[in-house]
Amino acid sequence: MIAVLAGGTGAAKFVRGLLEVVLPETLTLIGNTGDDVELWGVHISPDLDTLMYQLAGWLDEERGWGVRGDTFACLATIGRYGEPTWFQLGDRDLATHLVRTNLLRRGYSLTEATAALCARLGVRARLLPMTDDPVRTYIHTPSGVLAFQEFFVRERWMPEVMAVEYRGSERARPAPGVLEAISEAQGILIAPSNPITSIGPILSISGIREALAERRDRVLAISPILGTEAVSGPAGKLMRACGYEVSPLGVARFYAGIVGRILIDDQDAGWREAIEQVGLRVFTAPLRMTDRAAAIRLARAAIACLHSEA
Ligand code: FO1
To answer: What values do phi and psi take at 136, rounded to 5?
Structure first.
Protein backbone atom coordinates (compact mmCIF):
# COMPACT_ATOMS: atom_id res chain seq x y z
CA MET A 1 0.00 0.00 0.00
CA ILE A 2 1.21 3.47 -0.94
CA ALA A 3 -0.22 6.72 0.42
CA VAL A 4 0.22 9.89 -1.60
CA LEU A 5 -0.21 13.42 -0.28
CA ALA A 6 -1.43 15.36 -3.28
CA GLY A 7 -2.48 18.73 -4.62
CA GLY A 8 -3.97 19.21 -8.09
CA THR A 9 -2.29 19.47 -11.47
CA GLY A 10 1.32 18.43 -10.61
CA ALA A 11 0.08 15.56 -8.47
CA ALA A 12 -2.31 14.38 -11.18
CA LYS A 13 0.52 14.16 -13.71
CA PHE A 14 2.54 12.14 -11.24
CA VAL A 15 -0.43 9.89 -10.44
CA ARG A 16 -0.83 9.21 -14.16
CA GLY A 17 2.65 7.68 -14.09
CA LEU A 18 2.04 5.91 -10.79
CA LEU A 19 -1.01 4.12 -12.18
CA GLU A 20 1.28 2.40 -14.70
CA VAL A 21 3.65 1.23 -11.98
CA VAL A 22 1.42 0.05 -9.12
CA LEU A 23 -2.09 -1.37 -8.93
CA PRO A 24 -4.72 1.34 -8.34
CA GLU A 25 -6.15 -0.73 -5.47
CA THR A 26 -2.87 -0.23 -3.59
CA LEU A 27 -3.05 3.58 -3.77
CA THR A 28 -4.60 5.94 -1.25
CA LEU A 29 -4.50 9.57 -2.33
CA ILE A 30 -4.92 12.18 0.39
CA GLY A 31 -6.03 15.34 -1.37
CA ASN A 32 -5.83 18.99 -0.44
CA THR A 33 -9.15 20.72 0.19
CA GLY A 34 -7.71 24.13 1.09
CA ASP A 35 -8.48 25.27 -2.48
CA ASP A 36 -12.17 24.34 -2.19
CA VAL A 37 -14.61 27.06 -3.04
CA GLU A 38 -18.36 27.58 -3.07
CA LEU A 39 -19.58 29.30 -6.25
CA TRP A 40 -23.13 29.51 -7.58
CA GLY A 41 -24.25 27.50 -4.56
CA VAL A 42 -22.14 24.46 -5.38
CA HIS A 43 -19.21 22.98 -3.49
CA ILE A 44 -16.15 22.77 -5.76
CA SER A 45 -13.14 20.68 -4.68
CA PRO A 46 -10.63 21.41 -7.48
CA ASP A 47 -7.80 19.22 -6.23
CA LEU A 48 -10.01 16.23 -5.39
CA ASP A 49 -11.68 16.58 -8.78
CA THR A 50 -8.40 16.84 -10.68
CA LEU A 51 -7.26 13.62 -9.00
CA MET A 52 -10.62 11.89 -9.46
CA TYR A 53 -10.78 12.81 -13.15
CA GLN A 54 -7.23 11.54 -13.60
CA LEU A 55 -8.08 8.25 -11.88
CA ALA A 56 -11.24 7.91 -13.99
CA GLY A 57 -9.48 8.78 -17.26
CA TRP A 58 -11.59 11.95 -17.61
CA LEU A 59 -8.98 14.63 -16.96
CA ASP A 60 -8.26 17.33 -19.50
CA GLU A 61 -4.53 16.68 -19.35
CA GLU A 62 -3.65 19.67 -21.48
CA ARG A 63 -5.18 22.18 -19.06
CA GLY A 64 -4.36 20.00 -16.07
CA TRP A 65 -7.86 20.37 -14.58
CA GLY A 66 -11.47 19.84 -15.55
CA VAL A 67 -13.05 17.28 -17.84
CA ARG A 68 -11.61 16.53 -21.29
CA GLY A 69 -13.84 17.82 -24.10
CA ASP A 70 -16.02 19.84 -21.70
CA THR A 71 -18.22 22.68 -22.91
CA PHE A 72 -18.91 25.97 -21.15
CA ALA A 73 -22.51 26.78 -22.10
CA CYS A 74 -23.64 27.23 -18.50
CA LEU A 75 -20.74 29.60 -17.77
CA ALA A 76 -21.48 31.59 -20.92
CA THR A 77 -25.09 31.95 -19.79
CA ILE A 78 -23.96 33.06 -16.33
CA GLY A 79 -21.91 35.71 -18.15
CA ARG A 80 -24.98 36.65 -20.19
CA TYR A 81 -26.67 37.51 -16.88
CA GLY A 82 -23.79 39.87 -16.17
CA GLU A 83 -22.28 37.70 -13.44
CA PRO A 84 -18.50 37.11 -13.07
CA THR A 85 -17.09 34.24 -15.12
CA TRP A 86 -13.45 34.24 -14.05
CA PHE A 87 -13.69 30.66 -12.74
CA GLN A 88 -14.01 28.37 -15.76
CA LEU A 89 -16.73 25.93 -14.73
CA GLY A 90 -17.30 23.35 -17.45
CA ASP A 91 -20.76 21.88 -18.00
CA ARG A 92 -19.73 18.30 -17.20
CA ASP A 93 -17.57 19.49 -14.32
CA LEU A 94 -20.62 21.33 -13.00
CA ALA A 95 -22.49 18.02 -12.89
CA THR A 96 -19.84 16.72 -10.47
CA HIS A 97 -20.32 19.76 -8.23
CA LEU A 98 -24.11 19.47 -8.35
CA VAL A 99 -24.03 15.82 -7.36
CA ARG A 100 -21.42 16.45 -4.65
CA THR A 101 -23.37 19.39 -3.23
CA ASN A 102 -26.56 17.36 -3.24
CA LEU A 103 -24.84 14.52 -1.38
CA LEU A 104 -23.40 16.96 1.18
CA ARG A 105 -26.86 18.50 1.72
CA ARG A 106 -28.26 15.01 2.28
CA GLY A 107 -25.78 14.60 5.12
CA TYR A 108 -22.85 12.87 3.46
CA SER A 109 -19.42 13.92 4.70
CA LEU A 110 -16.94 15.10 2.07
CA THR A 111 -15.18 11.72 2.47
CA GLU A 112 -18.43 9.86 1.76
CA ALA A 113 -19.38 12.13 -1.13
CA THR A 114 -15.91 11.72 -2.68
CA ALA A 115 -16.11 7.93 -2.30
CA ALA A 116 -19.58 7.92 -3.90
CA LEU A 117 -18.45 10.02 -6.87
CA CYS A 118 -15.33 7.88 -7.34
CA ALA A 119 -17.32 4.64 -7.14
CA ARG A 120 -19.75 5.86 -9.77
CA LEU A 121 -16.83 6.69 -12.09
CA GLY A 122 -15.31 3.26 -11.54
CA VAL A 123 -12.24 4.59 -9.74
CA ARG A 124 -10.34 1.76 -8.08
CA ALA A 125 -7.80 3.77 -6.08
CA ARG A 126 -8.93 5.33 -2.79
CA LEU A 127 -9.28 9.12 -2.78
CA LEU A 128 -9.63 10.81 0.61
CA PRO A 129 -10.01 14.49 1.37
CA MET A 130 -7.49 15.62 3.99
CA THR A 131 -10.39 16.54 6.29
CA ASP A 132 -14.18 16.71 6.34
CA ASP A 133 -13.98 20.03 8.17
CA PRO A 134 -13.80 23.38 6.39
CA VAL A 135 -10.19 24.47 5.92
CA ARG A 136 -9.59 27.23 3.39
CA THR A 137 -6.35 28.75 2.18
CA TYR A 138 -6.27 32.56 2.22
CA ILE A 139 -3.54 34.71 0.71
CA HIS A 140 -2.72 37.98 2.47
CA THR A 141 -1.74 40.69 -0.02
CA PRO A 142 -1.07 44.44 0.41
CA SER A 143 -4.57 45.20 -0.92
CA GLY A 144 -6.42 42.65 1.20
CA VAL A 145 -7.01 38.99 1.92
CA LEU A 146 -7.92 36.75 -1.04
CA ALA A 147 -9.44 33.28 -1.02
CA PHE A 148 -7.08 30.92 -2.85
CA GLN A 149 -9.05 30.72 -6.11
CA GLU A 150 -9.39 34.52 -6.18
CA PHE A 151 -5.61 34.80 -5.90
CA PHE A 152 -4.77 31.93 -8.23
CA VAL A 153 -7.37 32.18 -10.98
CA ARG A 154 -8.97 35.65 -10.82
CA GLU A 155 -5.77 37.57 -10.04
CA ARG A 156 -3.50 35.10 -11.94
CA TRP A 157 -1.24 34.91 -8.84
CA MET A 158 0.09 38.41 -9.57
CA PRO A 159 -0.43 40.15 -6.18
CA GLU A 160 2.45 40.35 -3.75
CA VAL A 161 2.09 37.68 -1.06
CA MET A 162 2.59 38.75 2.55
CA ALA A 163 1.34 35.64 4.33
CA VAL A 164 -0.59 32.41 3.77
CA GLU A 165 -3.32 31.31 6.15
CA TYR A 166 -5.01 27.90 6.42
CA ARG A 167 -8.25 29.15 7.93
CA GLY A 168 -10.09 26.59 10.05
CA SER A 169 -7.16 24.20 10.35
CA GLU A 170 -6.87 24.65 14.14
CA ARG A 171 -10.29 23.01 14.57
CA ALA A 172 -10.03 20.49 11.72
CA ARG A 173 -9.52 16.77 12.22
CA PRO A 174 -8.04 14.40 9.65
CA ALA A 175 -10.73 12.70 7.57
CA PRO A 176 -11.52 9.07 8.47
CA GLY A 177 -8.83 6.80 7.05
CA VAL A 178 -6.15 9.46 6.63
CA LEU A 179 -4.05 8.66 9.69
CA GLU A 180 -4.50 4.91 9.13
CA ALA A 181 -3.39 5.27 5.50
CA ILE A 182 -0.22 7.03 6.67
CA SER A 183 0.55 4.61 9.48
CA GLU A 184 -0.23 1.44 7.52
CA ALA A 185 1.33 2.30 4.13
CA GLN A 186 4.56 0.65 3.07
CA GLY A 187 5.59 4.04 1.81
CA ILE A 188 4.24 7.58 1.72
CA LEU A 189 4.88 9.87 -1.22
CA ILE A 190 4.54 13.64 -1.23
CA ALA A 191 3.67 14.49 -4.83
CA PRO A 192 5.54 17.28 -6.66
CA SER A 193 2.85 19.75 -5.63
CA ASN A 194 3.11 23.29 -4.33
CA PRO A 195 4.49 22.84 -0.78
CA ILE A 196 2.78 25.95 0.58
CA THR A 197 -0.74 25.83 -0.85
CA SER A 198 -1.17 22.16 -1.83
CA ILE A 199 0.71 20.18 0.83
CA GLY A 200 0.88 22.87 3.57
CA PRO A 201 -2.89 22.73 4.22
CA ILE A 202 -2.71 18.94 4.64
CA LEU A 203 0.20 19.27 7.10
CA SER A 204 -1.65 21.98 9.04
CA ILE A 205 -4.24 19.49 10.31
CA SER A 206 -3.63 18.21 13.77
CA GLY A 207 -2.21 14.67 13.81
CA ILE A 208 -1.07 14.45 10.19
CA ARG A 209 2.37 15.94 10.76
CA GLU A 210 2.87 13.65 13.77
CA ALA A 211 1.77 10.55 11.83
CA LEU A 212 4.25 11.39 9.06
CA ALA A 213 7.07 12.11 11.52
CA GLU A 214 6.58 8.62 12.98
CA ARG A 215 7.00 7.07 9.53
CA ARG A 216 9.64 9.58 8.48
CA ASP A 217 12.05 7.08 6.99
CA ARG A 218 9.25 5.78 4.76
CA VAL A 219 8.22 9.24 3.54
CA LEU A 220 9.59 10.48 0.21
CA ALA A 221 8.99 14.01 -1.08
CA ILE A 222 9.36 14.70 -4.78
CA SER A 223 10.64 18.22 -5.31
CA PRO A 224 8.36 20.56 -7.28
CA ILE A 225 11.35 22.91 -7.65
CA LEU A 226 14.01 22.40 -10.32
CA GLY A 227 17.08 24.54 -9.85
CA THR A 228 15.72 27.78 -8.49
CA GLU A 229 12.33 27.71 -10.18
CA ALA A 230 9.01 25.97 -9.73
CA VAL A 231 8.15 23.44 -12.43
CA SER A 232 4.93 25.43 -12.85
CA GLY A 233 2.64 27.83 -11.01
CA PRO A 234 3.25 30.06 -8.00
CA ALA A 235 5.16 27.59 -5.77
CA GLY A 236 8.36 29.68 -5.98
CA LYS A 237 6.62 32.95 -5.20
CA LEU A 238 4.75 31.40 -2.25
CA MET A 239 7.83 29.67 -0.84
CA ARG A 240 9.79 32.94 -0.95
CA ALA A 241 6.93 34.76 0.74
CA CYS A 242 6.88 32.17 3.52
CA GLY A 243 10.62 32.48 4.12
CA TYR A 244 11.87 29.46 2.18
CA GLU A 245 14.65 29.57 -0.39
CA VAL A 246 13.35 28.57 -3.83
CA SER A 247 15.50 25.49 -4.42
CA PRO A 248 15.48 21.78 -3.62
CA LEU A 249 17.15 22.77 -0.33
CA GLY A 250 14.23 25.08 0.45
CA VAL A 251 11.84 22.17 -0.21
CA ALA A 252 13.94 19.94 2.07
CA ARG A 253 13.81 22.55 4.84
CA PHE A 254 10.03 22.88 4.42
CA TYR A 255 9.60 19.11 4.87
CA ALA A 256 12.38 18.57 7.45
CA GLY A 257 11.18 16.46 10.38
CA ILE A 258 8.39 14.69 8.50
CA VAL A 259 10.24 13.45 5.43
CA GLY A 260 13.26 11.14 5.48
CA ARG A 261 13.88 11.03 1.75
CA ILE A 262 13.72 13.50 -1.09
CA LEU A 263 13.85 13.03 -4.84
CA ILE A 264 15.42 15.97 -6.66
CA ASP A 265 16.30 16.55 -10.29
CA ASP A 266 19.54 15.13 -11.72
CA GLN A 267 20.69 18.67 -12.51
CA ASP A 268 20.33 19.61 -8.81
CA ALA A 269 22.77 16.99 -7.46
CA GLY A 270 24.97 19.88 -6.28
CA TRP A 271 22.47 20.45 -3.44
CA ARG A 272 22.95 16.91 -2.10
CA GLU A 273 25.31 17.71 0.79
CA ALA A 274 23.36 20.71 2.03
CA ILE A 275 20.13 18.68 1.97
CA GLU A 276 21.77 15.77 3.79
CA GLN A 277 22.69 18.22 6.55
CA VAL A 278 18.97 18.93 7.00
CA GLY A 279 18.65 15.19 7.70
CA LEU A 280 17.17 13.88 4.44
CA ARG A 281 18.49 11.13 2.20
CA VAL A 282 18.83 12.44 -1.33
CA PHE A 283 17.90 10.63 -4.55
CA THR A 284 18.10 12.07 -8.04
CA ALA A 285 16.15 11.43 -11.27
CA PRO A 286 14.85 13.51 -14.17
CA LEU A 287 11.83 15.26 -12.65
CA ARG A 288 10.28 17.01 -15.64
CA MET A 289 7.08 15.19 -16.66
CA THR A 290 7.11 16.37 -20.27
CA ASP A 291 5.02 13.42 -21.46
CA ARG A 292 3.40 10.25 -20.19
CA ALA A 293 6.62 8.21 -20.54
CA ALA A 294 8.49 10.75 -18.38
CA ALA A 295 5.74 10.57 -15.73
CA ILE A 296 6.01 6.78 -15.69
CA ARG A 297 9.80 6.97 -15.34
CA LEU A 298 9.43 9.41 -12.45
CA ALA A 299 6.87 7.19 -10.71
CA ARG A 300 9.16 4.19 -11.12
CA ALA A 301 12.09 6.18 -9.68
CA ALA A 302 9.96 7.31 -6.72
CA ILE A 303 8.90 3.75 -5.88
CA ALA A 304 12.53 2.59 -6.15
CA CYS A 305 13.60 5.37 -3.74
CA LEU A 306 10.95 4.27 -1.23
CA HIS A 307 12.23 0.70 -1.37
CA SER A 308 15.92 1.60 -1.23
CA GLU A 309 17.46 0.32 2.01
CA ALA A 310 21.05 1.46 1.34
N1 FO1 B 1 -7.55 26.96 -13.02
C2 FO1 B 1 -7.39 28.08 -13.76
O3 FO1 B 1 -6.27 28.53 -13.95
N4 FO1 B 1 -8.49 28.75 -14.27
C5 FO1 B 1 -9.74 28.30 -14.09
O6 FO1 B 1 -10.70 28.93 -14.54
C7 FO1 B 1 -9.93 27.08 -13.34
C8 FO1 B 1 -11.18 26.51 -13.16
C9 FO1 B 1 -11.29 25.27 -12.51
C10 FO1 B 1 -12.53 24.63 -12.41
C11 FO1 B 1 -12.63 23.41 -11.77
C12 FO1 B 1 -11.47 22.80 -11.25
O13 FO1 B 1 -11.57 21.59 -10.64
C14 FO1 B 1 -10.25 23.41 -11.35
C15 FO1 B 1 -10.14 24.65 -11.98
N16 FO1 B 1 -8.91 25.28 -12.11
C17 FO1 B 1 -8.77 26.44 -12.82
C18 FO1 B 1 -7.73 24.71 -11.49
C19 FO1 B 1 -7.58 25.11 -10.01
O20 FO1 B 1 -7.77 26.46 -9.79
C21 FO1 B 1 -6.18 24.75 -9.54
O22 FO1 B 1 -5.69 23.62 -10.20
C23 FO1 B 1 -6.03 24.34 -8.13
O24 FO1 B 1 -6.89 24.90 -7.23
C25 FO1 B 1 -4.56 24.48 -7.70
O26 FO1 B 1 -4.15 23.20 -7.35
So the answer is: -130, 135
**Which region holds residue 277: left if phi is over 0, alpha if psi is between -120 and 50, else beta?**
alpha
Q: Which of 39, 65, 155 to mutate to test the pocket of ligand 1 (most atoms within 8 A of CB)?
A: 65
Fold (topology level) of 178-307: Rossmann fold (3.40.50)
Q: Answer positive or negative: Cα dihedral of 42, 40, 34, 24.
A: positive
CB 259 within 8 A of CB 221: yes
* Residue-wise pLDDT tens digits, 140-199: 999 999 999 999 999 999 999 999 999 999 999 999 999 999 999 999 999 999 999 999
Domain extents in the chain: 38-129, 136-167, 178-307
Residue 191 has phi, psi (to 5 degrees) of -60, 160
Pick the residue whose CA is nearest to atom 12 on ligand 1.
Answer: 46
**How far, in Å, is the centroid of ligand 1 from the Cα of 47?**
8
pTM: 0.98
Task: Tell me the Ramachandran region of residue 280: left when phi exceeds 0, alpha when psi lies from -120 to 50, beta otherwise.
Answer: beta
Per-residue pLDDT tens digits for 79-89 = 999 999 999 99
CA dist 63 and 2 (Å) reads: 27
Under CATH, to which class is 38-129 assigned?
mainly alpha
Atom of ligand 1 nearest to the CA of 50: 13
Q: How far is the CA of 35 from the centre of ligand 1 (A)?
A: 9
pLDDT in tens, 8-44: 899 999 999 999 999 999 999 999 999 999 999 999 9
